[in-house]
Predict the 3D structure of the following.
Amino acid sequence: MGDKLSEIKSNEELNLFAAKTEEKLSEIEVTYASKFKELEDQKVVDEETQKKWYEETLEKFNKENVELKTALDLTQTQLAEVKEEQKTRYTKVSGDEKMKQIGDFLFAMKRKDFKTIFEMGGKVNTATDKLEWKVEDWDMKAAPNLGTPLRGDAATGSILVPEIWANEILRIPTDQSALMGKVRSVPMSARKINYPAKLAGVAFAWPSDETQLKLEKNPTFSDIELEAKTAAGWIAYTEELNEDTVVPLAEYFTSLFREAWAVEFDNQCLVSNTAPFVGVLRNAAANIVTMATATFASTTLDDLANLVASLDDQSKRNGAAFMMHVTVQDVLRTLRNDNGDYIYAPPANNLPGTIWGYPVLLSDAMPDLASSAVSTPFVAFGNPKWILHGDRVGFEIRIFSETADAMVYDRLFLRCRLRQAFKTAFPTAFGVLRTSA
């Protein structure tokens, strides 16, 4: 570190220089005071005489100790310069230094290190004016409540505070359909389409010898009819709302209809029990497996095994899958075999979870755990491709604006429409698990 103030290059050197200057000043002051005390032995009675004596003695002392007085004055001046330089240089510290100083200061506060706080320029409430570091309550006096400030409330200024609405409507999107792409979908060029279906096949007979008749074994047929029905829904809203909203309403409504159709598609394939279509769970010709218990939560391994066994030949089990609600799956995931192994294998490599090697398809249209009741079907087992889906008119969105209501009431109408058909082609290729009565 340099011996002159101009040679100092950092705050650390500046602090060290200030400490040495204060130490030097202290030594000079002690010497000065001890020498001057030798002149104080003379007794002075009255105050006026004492004052006059002090001034004359001080003047005489300074003349006789010119070097000491000069050193004292110079040191005091230098110390004042150092103090001023400290104030200036501390305001020019780098960003990193400032952050470190703030961190050190906060750390000192946490440790209640009042001495460090004091040295860093902080003020501490102490019991005395001496440096006795004691924790005391601050003596704070509440400021008077002056005036009535304007605030962002209804009475004093809320109209001055703007509100912003996002251009998005928050929601949890409905899960995609579990069966779209898995059932057999066919285009329909007419309202009805009929498929011939095998009722009975052929068989071989073994005559005892060449003299015996070969038996006739003709197949029989049935027909499966698909008839398209209309599903539709519409929403009315005003032109003014459409003009003023920050939300793209047509896009939002379309998204809602698409998500609703995903659930409705599975509902018609699996759950529907009313016209025009009947789903697998409600098809009386399906293989019904009735549990010994009356709740979904009490499903056992035996129940699932019986459900698989309800498909009495391998051809029906080929491509088969369990179909259920995710909350029912939560119950089945806890089931273990006699070895303590879970029967449910979680999804892996972009494939669904499985039970005994059969995929588990999850659909929000299926009965959930809260729907548990007596005599209620809730799990289906079979190959989804044996469900027929006819597509006459696909997902159609139209906006009607040229109407009488639009002219008189400024109303717009968004309509979603489909013409579709559903049919369980082979009900006996499905097993249905149902609670007891």
Q: What stands out?
A: The CA atoms of residues 8 and 14 lie 6 Å apart. Residues 11-37 form the longest helix (27 residues). The first strand starts at residue 184 and ends at 187. The chain has a mean pLDDT of 83.
